[in-house]
Design goal:
Order of helices and strands: HHHHHHHHHHHHHHHH
Strand content: under 5%
Structural class: mainly alpha
Radius of gyration: 21 Å
Number of helices: 16
Number of domains: 1
Distance between the termini: 48 Å
């Protein structure tokens, strides 16, 4: 939802309101950073107490993310073609000149390695290419971080965060693109796009999440102590939002708040009493459909802008965008994500059974 609000504002459908609300919407890209930390945390939380093989893990991840991803590319295809035909934005130039390569890399979840095409086809899909790299690394990182003591886990978090700060802070200090003060509106700066989209730059956020996940699994903290971790994390997040215009954009975008997000996630994972409201089944359903919502919301917003122009920015237009986005995401979850995941996992189980029988 934070990312969706960000795109509603940056694409011009939502504007105005209290200054604090504008600031929150303006840093909606932080939702992706939160997701990277959450991803590492949840994978450790899921696999910490059970053995797994890398191949089985990768097959499970493919079944989880690719069917909805592929369907989102089909949904986004008309928008992508419209972009190529009607728009002359600088960030589209490389994609137009290397269209076959761009399409191949987007389809194979590798587009984030090439800064010029990271936002091609479906602009939000770059983060899934980063996630795919995380999944490739997870079986290698898991045993390394699992060996760490409690103090060692803090060292992992501190080291990963330090690497992030060095990479993004280095950009802020040396300005390799020749622009002293960047923000989210800069779309065609090569090195800024490396900092924003390259999987290696984001990997420390995933590692912070993994280390926090192991710390949570081994924690002996009482459930209600999670309140303080969550409240402290939310307070730090609010402070960062308030100071967002003073914090260098590359640092805020990529990893600065990773320990803050880890604290919030850790606190909620301890399941203090107040989190029971999050187990309400309709909230759970919306949460399960949030992956599809993330993948298709940008397409829905752009379709509304192209079809209805300024009328899309009216209250009725914005409400329609939200209803359509949520409806499609629910349908995608129920009709594509769930059935495809069950079918692919069943195929994998049959393959494993056959291999075991022949061994």
């Amino acid at each position: 939802m934070h990312v969706l609000l960000f795109h509603l504002q940056t694409l011009g459908l939502v504007s105005g309101g209290p200054a604090w609300l504008q600031e929150i919407r303006g840093v909606g890209y932080l939702g992706v950073s939160f997701f990277f930390v959450l991803s590492g945390f949840i994978l450790v939380y899921t696999y910490a107490d059970r053995p797994f093989r890398a191949r089985e893990f990768w097959q499970a991840r493919f079944a989880r993310i690719y069917p909805a991803y592929a369907s989102s590319l089909l949904i986004a295809l008309p928008m992508f073609l419209w972009f190529l035909i009607h728009l002359n934005f600088p960030f589209l130039a490389w994609t137009k000149d290397h269209l076959s390569l761009a399409c191949l890399m987007v389809a194979t979840l590798t587009q984030s390695w090439v800064p010029q095409i990271a936002s091609a086809w479906n602009p939000v899909a770059w983060s899934l290419a980063v996630e795919a790299f995380f999944y490739a690394c997870f079986p290698l990182l898991f045993p390394m971080i699992a060996k760490a003591s409690r103090r060692g886990l803090l060292v992992w978090i501190a080291a990963a965060w330090t690497i992030t700060l060095l990479l993004t802070g280095g950009y802020a200090v040396f300005s390799p693109d020749g622009v002293a003060h960047t923000n989210s509106s800069y779309e065609n700066l090569f090195w800024l796009n490396v900092v924003r989209f390259n999987p290696l730059v984001s990997l420390p956020e995933f590692v912070v999440g993994m280390a926090a996940g192991f710390a949570c699994v081994r924690s002996k903290l009482a459930a209600d102590s999670g309140i303080w971790l969550t409240v402290g994390g939310m307070a730090a997040f609010a402070l960062a939002v308030a100071l967002s215009r003073q914090i260098p954009y590359p640092m805020l975008h990529s990893g600065l708040l990773a320990p803050v997000f880890a604290s919030i996630i850790f606190g909620v994972a301890l399941r203090p009493r107040w989190t029971r409201v999050l187990e309400w089944r309709w909230l759970v359903l919306v949460g399960e459909a949030s992956y599809s919502l993330y993948l298709i919301h940008f397409v829905v917003i752009w379709a509304a802008i192209v079809r209805f122009g300024r009328a899309a920015a009216s209250p009725i237009g914005i409400l329609t965008v939200l209803v359509v986005a949520f409806t499609i995401s629910m349908a995608s979850y129920k009709l594509i994500e769930q059935p495809a995941r069950r079918k692919l996992r069943a195929m994998n189980l049959r393959q494993l059974s056959t291999a075991a029988a022949n061994a």
